[in-house]
UniProtKB/TrEMBL annotation:
It comes from the Eukaryota. Binds amino acids. Residues 136-209, 344-423 form the ACT domain. Keywords: Repeat. This is ACT domain-containing protein ACR. The keyword Repeat applies. The keyword Repeat applies. One of its GO terms (molecular function) is amino acid binding.
Amino acid sequence: MAAFADGDSSSSSWDSDDEYQKFIQKMNPPRITIDNTSCANATIIHVDSANKYGILLEVVQVLTDLKLIVKKAYISSDGGWFMDVFNVTDQSGQKIMDESVLEGIKDCIYKSIAPGSCFLPSRRRAIVEPSSDYTLIELTGTDRPGLLSEVSAVLTNLDCNVVNAEVWTHNKRAAAVIGVTDRKSGLAILDAERLCRIKERLRYVFKGRSRDAKTTVAMGVTHTERRLHQMMLEDRDYERYDKDRANANPIPMVSVVNWLQKEYSVVTMRCKDRPKLLFDTVCTLTDMQYVVYHGSVDTEGPEAYQEYYIRHIDGSPVNSEAERKRIIQCLEAAIERRVSEGLKLELSTGDRVGLLSDVTRIFREHGLTVTRAEVATRGNKAINTFYVRDTAGSSVELKTLEAIRQEIGQTVLQVKGHPDHPKSPAQESPTRFLFSSLFRPRSL
């Protein structure tokens, strides 16, 4: 192991909001530099800044939102300074050469971690911020076939229009963040009695035969994927494992050992690489209130390797076997939640009230269940992605797919990745990043 310098082990460095800390941050604004010459196959981003709890997650979150692929990373944040290096590519694996795009990347990172930034996470500040565009609904409970269909049908019956949503399922648990508007006005729902009715109806549906379900209604916007991780972590999905879990997907290799000489705990992870993996693991460590003092990430090839030297926010390493096991379970769950179990279906059509209810009803009537979903509205167009499988967990038959597409529309619903389904012609998509939208209220 490399000999690292000892960091400040007290929690005061993370919790303090005194004038001295603010002065240090103001006198040491972030420096973001981009190097396109040192590496032949990646753009190198250097981030230097005064250190603060959660800053690593903020930088990784920006890189993820900009759809950059992190190939390698080197993390160092001992003491009062944060120094990170990220080797990144675009989604096609190419270096980023457009100067305007590079400037946009620098600007986004700077704005996310600059002194006084409203995006820097704090344990004392909720990540939900006020908005009048829509009402935010959060749901957690037991997963079952047809759950999304039932939820969307209830919302339609209550004169709610789903404008955006994201649904995750893992280990027989389900979590959803849904943005809705009033069907008639198209605005957020403000009436307290109506919100209470919506909340109670959804809790009843999400509860099913189980006693444990949670429904929250709030005005606001949030970083949806981080919130879903938090919700499933709070729901303890990591403790509920299927008997056939090992047969579904390869189990991530996660280990936690203590390096007593330096009072660090060393977390290592090996698993199949996939998009947003770095965000998922850093998000979970941060929300479990651990600080990454040093680390390295390597995703060259099909396997990803991550190594972090961590302490709890109070400055202590892992101090019990129960804590060690919990970290391993939570990181395994964080890696697995986004692994898509099922066939990918993409829907693109004109938006209307009740569309999500109708589509998911058709899935249910043909014996399919939704394992993950991303629902978005852009202007007057609905752009939705569903991951589906049959209720027995088997592969979806081609004749079932064709019957569903016949009912929904051949050009409206596209099938991705079925071995027997003919591939659709590749569609080109713009690669320029929409930096101006990143710091507006984020859609779900």
